[in-house]
Amino acid sequence: MAPVTEHHEFKDMTRLASARETLLDDVVPVDSIDSVPVSRADGRVLAEAVTPSRAVPHYERAAMDGFAVVAESTFGASERSPAALEMVEADAGSEDASEAGQVPRVDRRTARRVHTGSELPEGANAVVMVEDTEVFGDEVEVRASVTDGENVAPAGEDVPADAELFGDGHRLRPSDLGLLRSVGRTTVDVYDPPTVEVVPTGDELVDGDPGPGEIVETNALTVSRYVERWGGQATYRDVVPDDASALRAAVERGLTADVVVTTGGSSVGERDLIADVVADRGEIRHHGLAIKPGHPVAVGVVEDTPILMLPGYPVSCIVTAIALLRPALKHAGHLPTPPHPATAATLDRKVPSEPGVRSFVRVALEPDGDASGTEDAPVHRAVPIRSGGAGVLSSVTDADGWVTIPESVEGLAAGERVEVEHWEYQP
């Protein structure tokens, strides 16, 4: 096969929404399912609705320290006119007496000491708080009345036996695992995570200390960690040089993954070969997007495997990964793509943008001491860090988020109300 040498200039820039739609059409949701122990299910996506194996609690229990009673035996009780009840206890020395059937039944003449969380004794239907009682030998004086069910947690108060805990497509969190274990679930069926082959490219990239003309590889590392956050499973490959044969081999090796992502070499320069390699083996859907930063991105497919070719500049790489790879992985992993949480702010100074291009402006949030906290005067100012500098990675780490300028808008004026999207938010 002849080496790929053809190069071209960007012609019509594709809008971000169109490129995203194309990529989502090419990404196939993963349908393989695994049964995993609850203890190892954090972050996994349920492949079925989950119901409890038992109610929580599975018995009526005392909600207070005090005495279990029949509520009617306390009616009219007060400080001046306490109700006197005989104390009954479990057999001495048996902490499991209630399970062994050794606890005397409570009736209208008796009371039994209970602690928060204790099983309510048979016959009792309420608990008198300990501070409303006083013990004299084998007798307890009740100095406040209680009603049926007072200070009692009924069976199923936390989780009813017929509840649906989580639906298909729910991504499990640590608190969910605790709830699953409490209802008796030991395993859950979950979708396998979408797999992503992440391939850094470029003759100039190194892993160790850089020499003159060399750059430490960061893009593929960053993208790999984003993949894990977004529910995927990343394979972070070694750097591939700007060589058509090596790039072709790297793409072919990754075709067993659900998505292949390359970083670098996606523009139209002499050393930007990846789009031509993909076109030679498959099809380029889009090359060049109407976004800034990040326009030298390409979307393609080889043997039904989507190939996302991200730019080499770090800021461009991050912007395009969040804009394109995040929704693709959510779709592949049976997850929704929620909007990023945002903070209302007042733009600190004018920001230019190009008509027809969607711009992402990195900003820092600072408190606005003169703001009233109303919709028109948010309590934060959005301070642009820089509108250019797609290679300045620190401009991302120094930012609190970005402000999106739509294609239909030609810049934003100082003082405008904006929404600062927090791109580092995990879901």
What's the SSE blueprint?
Layout: H1 16-26, E1 33-37, E2 45-46, E3 61-62, E4 66-69, E5 83-87, E6 110-114, E7 126-129, E8 133-136, E9 139-142, E10 152-153, H2 174-182, E11 187-191, E12 195-200, E13 205-206, E14 215-216, H3 219-229, E15 233-236, H4 244-253, E16 259-263, H5 274-281, E17 283-287, E18 291-292, E19 298-302, E20 305-310, H6 314-332, E21 342-347, E22 358-367, E23 380-386, H7 394-397, E24 401-405, E25 417-421
Parallel strand pairs: 5-6, 12-15, 12-16, 13-14, 16-20, 18-22, 21-23
Antiparallel strand pairs: 1-11, 2-11, 3-10, 4-6, 4-7, 5-9, 8-9, 17-19, 19-20, 21-25, 22-23, 22-24
Helix pairs in contact: 1-6, 3-6, 4-5
Features:
7 helices; Molybdenum Cofactor Biosythetic Enzyme, Chain A; 6-stranded mixed sheet; disordered N terminus; alpha/beta; 427 residues; 4 domains; Molybdopterin biosynthesis moeA protein, domain 3; Molybdopterin biosynthesis moea protein, domain 2; elongated
Plain-language structure description:
By secondary structure, this protein is α/β, with parallel strands linked by helices. It folds into 4 domains: 16-32 and 193-332, MoaB/Mog-like domain (Molybdenum Cofactor Biosythetic Enzyme, Chain A, 3-Layer(aba) Sandwich); 33-56 and 157-191, Alpha-Beta Complex (Molybdopterin biosynthesis moea protein, domain 2), CATH 3.90.105.10; 61-153, Molybdopterin biosynthesis moeA protein, domain 3 (Beta Complex), CATH 2.170.190.11; 342-421, MoeA, C-terminal, domain IV (Beta-clip, Beta Barrel). Helices cover 17% and strands 26% of the residues. The strands form 6 sheets. It has a 6-stranded mixed β-sheet with strand order 7-4-6-5-9-8, with no helix packed on it. Strand 19 and strand 20 form a beta hairpin. It is elongated and about 95 Å long.
